[in-house]
Amino acid sequence: MIDHPTRDVGFGVYLHWPFCAAKCPYCDFNSHVRHGRLDQARWRAAFAREIAHAAALAPGRTVTSIFLGGGTPSLMEPATVGALLDAVAGAWSVAPDIEVTLEANPTSVEAGRFRGYRAAGVNRVSLGVQALDDASLKRLGRLHSTAEAMRAVETAAAHFERYSFDLIYARPDQTPRAWATELREAIARAAEHLSLYQLTIEEGTPFHGLAAAGKLTVPDDDTARALYDVTQEVCAGEGLRAYEISNHARPGAESRHNLLYWRYGEYAGIGPGAHGRLVLPEGRTGTSTERNPEAWLARAEAEGHGIVETEALGPGDQADEFLMMGLRLREGIDPARYAALAGRPLDSGRVAGLVAAGLVARAPDGRLAATPKGAPVLNAVVAELAA
Which of 190, 189, 197 is closest to 167 using CA atoms? Predict the structure, then answer.
């Protein structure tokens, strides 16, 4: 069954640049440090080949958003960014109001480079600021200072009408009062959009080893919940409401590319370790590429792509993904679309129980959304609905 509603929310392209200047101790993303100069012309050609392969799998789409993530895409030369965007435009039609976002680290922000990105077609940047005090930045393994981060934000504001930055909270020793102060300062600088992530200790990271050895302590559950509540209250009070659990924006400033993910749209994942969701003639299909950068490069050059896994997603898989993604959004989900994906409606008794518990709410148009009480326990809400 082809999931036609995906066309209504657009078609996205995610381009993964896997290289970083340094690996942060909390990060479990597919990012790698490489010493020495990369042959970016070679990488550009490999990306172009995989883009062409994706267009052959999913032809006739109109691209509504592109996201250059990583890693640290701001380590790319502007010519590389331009070549990747040209390759996308050569493979598919491009919407006239396309959103093109590039992630950047404050240490790699230069006015000249940002001018080059803007000329290449980037119209939105997302900065990995992560904290607004130097002690926290050092503990998080970041290479920039607060002053450098704020200069990067000013540079972004000078070159792009749309920009955002990330902060991490629930850091060691962080108090709700200190976080509220930091958050208000961030909102004064961020203008329209903030991504605010609670620090989690991921297995396999240096932070995981430190935590296991008792050398790193993060806030307990009660403090973490207080920090989450402060996040919602301060942002809402300053006009940046949560349109998704970790993302806050002024009306109209939401990240369109990320909305496409959460609305369970269709997107191509390009580059090492990228994931995609394509609606093919045989149905919705998940794609995964080779994670190791050099192995991906070799595959792309030899075979035209680095895809190592494709998975046909059955009705149950699609419905579960739709729930898990869509209930992160303040707008919630359309139960009719769930029924179309799953081949059955949501269990009315389970829905009624969650409504009675104050964890989900029904909108006048019939949509179901997690409430402020339900959002912090979303995994349990999704599990109940999917059962």
Answer: 197
